[in-house]
From TrEMBL:
The keyword Transmembrane helix applies. It is a multi-pass membrane protein. InterPro entries: NnrU_dom (IPR009915). It is found in: Membrane. It holds the Pfam family NnrU. The chain crosses the membrane at residues 40-59, 71-93, 113-139, 164-186. Residues 3-190 form the NnrU domain. It comes from the Bacteria. Keywords: Membrane, Transmembrane, Transmembrane helix. This is NnrU family protein.
C-alpha cells in the first residue's frame, strides 16, 4: 500500500501545483523554460504513475474488504465509465456542448470514472485509488472554474457535429477498453 500511496502523492501532487500555487508554477515555467518545465513535470508524472500501477498491483495481492457492493452497481459502473469516456473525448473535440458548458470535461470524466468505481468495488486499495482521484478531480475542477471566472474565459459554443464526434469517440474508446483492454491491462474483465 505504501508504494500506491507514494505514487498517488507524486502523481496527484504534480497535477495539483496549479490548484495550490499557480503563481509559483508560472514563475518556475519562466525560470526553467517551457521545455524543461514540461520535461520535469512529465518525468515526475510518469514516475508517480508507475508507482501507482505497481503499488496497486501489490496491494491487490493482499486485499482488505471494506464493503461488498451489490452486483447491480457493477453494471451501473459500466454506464458511468461510458459517460467518463465521452467526457474525456469532449475535452479534445472542438466545439461541443459538454466543453462549452463544463469548461473542463476531462476532470468531469475523472470524477465520474472514480465515483463509478467506488460504487462497484469495495477493497481498501480500490477506495484509496479511486477516492484519491475523485477528491483530486473535484478540487481541481472547482479551482479551474474559479480561474476561468477570474480570467474571463469563455469557451466556444458547442455544435451538434462536435457533440456527435465527442460521443462517438468516447463510445468507441469505451468499447475497446471495456471489452478488451481492461482485462488485458488491469486483469479484471468488467464485461464478463
Amino acid at each position: 500500500m505504501a508504494l500506491l500511496l507514494l505514487g498517488l502523492v507524486l502523481f496527484l501532487g504534480v497535477h495539483s501545483i496549479r490548484i495550490f500555487d499557480n503563481d509559483w508554477r508560472t514563475q518556475q515555467r519562466a525560470r526553467l523554460g517551457e521545455m524543461r518545465w514540461k520535461g520535469l513535470y512529465s518525468l515526475l508524472s510518469i514516475a508517480g504513475f508507475v508507482l501507482i500501477v505497481y503499488g496497486f498491483g501489490l496491494a491487490r495481492q493482499q486485499p482488505v474488504v471494506l464493503y461488498v457492493p451489490p452486483m447491480g452497481l457493477r453494471h451501473l459502473n459500466a454506464l458511468f465509465t461510458l459517460l467518463a469516456f465521452v467526457l474525456v473525448a469532449a475535452a479534445y473535440v472542438p466545439a461541443n456542448h459538454l466543453k462549452a458548458k463544463l469548461g473542463h470535461p476531462m476532470l468531469g470524466g475523472v470524477k465520474v470514472w472514480a465515483f463509478g468505481h467506488l460504487l462497484a468495488t469495495g477493497m481498501l486499495h480500490d477506495v484509496v485509488l479511486f477516492g484519491a482521484f475523485l477528491l483530486w478531480a473535484t478540487v481541481d475542477f472547482v479551482s479551474a472554474r474559479r480561474r476561468d471566472r477570474a480570467d474571463g474565459v469563455v469557451y466556444p459554443a458547442g455544435t451538434v457535429k462536435g457533440d456527435v464526434i465527442a460521443v462517438a469517440a468516447g463510445a468507441v474508446g469505451w468499447v475497446v477498453f471495456a471489452w478488451w483492454l481492461h482485462a488485458w491491462l488491469i486483469g479484471v474483465n468488467p464485461m464478463g
